[in-house]
Specification:
- The chain has 461 residues and is of the alpha+beta class.
- 18% of the residues lie in helices and 40% in strands.
- It has helices at 2-49, 87-95, 286-291, 296-310, 444-447; strands at 55-57, 75-79, 102-107, 115-117, 121-125, 131-137, 143-149, 152-156, 161-173, 176-188, 193-196, 200-202, 206-212, 220-223, 232-233, 240-245, 253-261, 264-273, 279-282, 331-334, 339-342, 345-349, 353-356, 362-364, 369-377, 381-389, 392-402, 409-410, 415-419, 429-436, 439-441.
- Strands 20, 23, 24, 25, 26, 27, 28, 29, 30 and 31 form a ten-stranded antiparallel beta sheet that branches. Strands 2, 3, 4, 6, 7, 9 and 10 form a seven-stranded mixed beta sheet that branches. Strands 11-13-16-15 form a four-stranded antiparallel beta sheet, with no helix packed on it.
- Strand 26 and strand 27 (392-402) form a beta hairpin.
- It is elongated.
- It starts with a helix and ends in a 14-residue tail after the last helix.
Length: 461
């Protein structure tokens, strides 16, 4: 009896041991499968994350710093909503060897420092192969976008402030699916600034008043006794330039410039320095002098036709680089700003340059512009005035003929006339003059690109 009982106990112990061994084998197999699924999930995460993170960019010249964006997942969670509480048991009982799916989520921690931009428009470029969802809340707390995004999303600020954004990227890959959520902010905080291209200027120079950061186009105004000028747009969005003339006869000393941008007033000052000018003695026939320079009728006609043009200005910039010399093969006979004596008596300061060359030499437009005047005047002969924008004008005197009419648009290098000797002239030459408002500036600084007229522009050539 005892032997029979002992055999029964031994059998039960063997059965229990067998069950235990089989259980352990099953557990090891389950653990191995869990590890395999986990490795698969990690591989899925790497596959999903490998293309590229979203790229946040603003229009040239400002690009949001993509280095600020996270490049990897900081928190990874392996999840399966179908997995019961007793994961190992139910996994062994109902899921092996049939493996259904897993999901991998990557949460990118919210950025505490916003991405900075200096232009009102920013763009989100998305990597390919993702199902994307984006929400954007504007600086006023209003949700301005909440929906699916394909390829890219562009947003324009209406004012300074911070957009709060959440972007979710989803992709099905391999045996599982993955989701990446980015939380970030884009901040625009740009205040207009006003600067001068130089705080000192010699007689004949140009001083540029440069406004930057006026990206919402607040109204601007400028006031100075140095002369009339107007703001024109520059190459960078939100940037403007007004070009202040310092004429040959401007007094030495400090001259204030008052600028208003929106509701903010700025007071600046430029120090005008003396420049040495030469003296010229010129002889002209009395009959020519009497019919031109000494003629009240000629002076009245000239003032009526030309003086009103001094006050004309616009906020469009037509010039796009350095000016070209209007004639070739010339000899400089009269310099800018010199003191002129005619027939032994002081007559004037010369406001332009005289370029002597052969009769009929073609005259070209030195830069793009619009013809304001093209006609014959008793004092200056055949005369042309071209506006280049912002109050800047080119003036041409004493020509033999003209090829343009008022209202025409001309391009740099386009023929506009031929050299002559009409009006107050002693021989074939071109009197070329550049004015800003009513004030004359040194033309040679426009030819070599050193003039303040090119301050704030990308190139002067």
């Amino acid at each position: 009896m005892k032997t029979k009982l002992w055999k029964t106990v031994q059998a039960l112990l063997c059965l229990i041991l067998l069950v235990a061994v089989l259980g352990m084998i099953t557990l090891f197999r389950a653990a191995a499968e869990v590890e395999r699924v986990w490795q698969t999930a990690q591989q899925s995460l790497q596959q999903v994350h490998s293309p590229k993170d979203p790229v946040f960019a603003a229009p040239v010249p400002t690009v949001l710093d993509t280095d600020l964006m996270p490049t990897g997942a900081e928190k990874v969670i392996f999840t399966d909503p179908l997995l019961p509480e007793n994961a190992l048991y139910d996994f062994v009982q109902s899921r092996l060897p049939q493996y259904a799916h897993c999901a991998v989520t990557a949460s990118i921690e919210p950025r505490h420092e916003p991405l900075q931009t200096t232009v009102p428009e920013w763009t989100l470029q998305l990597p390919e192969g993702y199902d994307a969802h984006l929400t954007v809340t504007d600086p006023e707390g209003i949700k301005v976008f909440d929906g699916a995004v394909q390829q890219s999303y562009t947003r324009t600020f209406a004012a300074n402030g911070t957009d709060v954004c959440t972007l979710t990227l989803r992709q099905q890959t391999g045996e599982g699916r993955a989701s990446f959520t980015y939380e970030f902010q884009v901040m625009l905080d740009v205040q207009p600034t006003v600067t001068l291209s130089t705080e000192t200027a010699a007689q004949g120079d140009v001083v540029a008043v440069l406004v930057s950061g006026n990206i919402f186009g607040e109204p601007m105004s400028l006031s100075t006794e140095l002369g009339l000028c107007d703001f024109v747009p520059l190459d960078t969005p939100g940037s403007y330039g007004a070009y202040v003339p310092v004429a040959y006869n401007r007094g030495v000393g400090a001259w204030p410039i008052e600028v208003t941008v929106g509701d903010t007033a700025h007071t600046l000052s430029v120090q005008v320095e003396k420049r040495d000018f030469t003296v010229q003695h010129m002889t002209i026939s009395q009959s020519v002098a009497d019919s031109t320079w000494n003629s009240a009728a000629a002076s009245t006609e000239y003032r009526a036709a030309i003086y009103p043009l001094y006050e004309l200005t616009d906020n469009e910039r037509h010039w796009d680089g350095a000016f070209i010399e209007p004639v070739t093969g010339y000899r400089l006979t009269t310099q800018y700003g010199l003191w002129r004596y005619t027939n032994g008596k002081y007559s004037e300061r010369h406001s332009g340059i005289d370029m002597a060359c052969a009769l009929g030499t073609p005259i070209s437009a030195p830069q793009n512009g619009v013809v304001l005047f093209a006609d014959y005047l008793q004092l200056t002969g055949y005369t042309i005035v071209i506006a280049h924008g912002g109050g800047v004008k080119s003036m041409f005197y004493h020509m033999n003929s003209i090829d343009v009419a008022a209202g025409d648009t001309v391009a740099t290098g386009q023929k506009i006339a031929e050299v002559g000797t009409t009006g107050y002239s002693t021989g074939p030459h071109l009197h070329y003059e550049v004015k800003i408002g009513s004030q004359s500036i040194d033309p040679f600084q426009l030819f070599d690109g050193t003039s303040g007229l090119f301050a704030g522009l990308s190139a002067a050539g």
